[in-house]
Hints:
CATH topology: Tick-borne Encephalitis virus Glycoprotein, domain 1
Amino acid sequence: MSTLKCLGIAAATLVALASGATAQNARELIMTPGKGVSFYMGTKHGVTHFLSANGACQLTVAIGDSPDMDGMNPSTSTRISMTVVPGQPAKVETTDGEALMLACAPGGGSMYLAMPPGFKLKDGN
C-alpha cells in the first residue's frame, strides 16, 4: 500500500474520530520531520513538531496561554512528548475538549494533523 494511500486512510479515520469536526470544517495538513507547526486555539497557543525514528514519529506538542500585550506569558505551559507508530493515531485534547488528531505515516516520513475548526494556524504555516 502506498504512503499516500495510507495517509488518506489515516486522514479519513482521524476526521471521523475528531470531536465535532467533519472533513468540511477541520483544518488538515501534512507535517514533515523537523518542521514545526504553530497554532492558536482560543486563548491558548501551541506548537507541534516531530522527528522520524525507527519507523515511527517522535512527536512533541507544547501548549500554553497566548502571550499578553507585552509579549509575556503569565502562566506555565505544558509539553507532551510521545511516540506515534503508524496505524495507531494519537489524540491530544485541550481542557475545553477540543482535540488535535495526529497519525504517523508508514516509515515515519510524515505526519497527518487534523485540528478542530476553531484552531488557527500561526502566520507562516
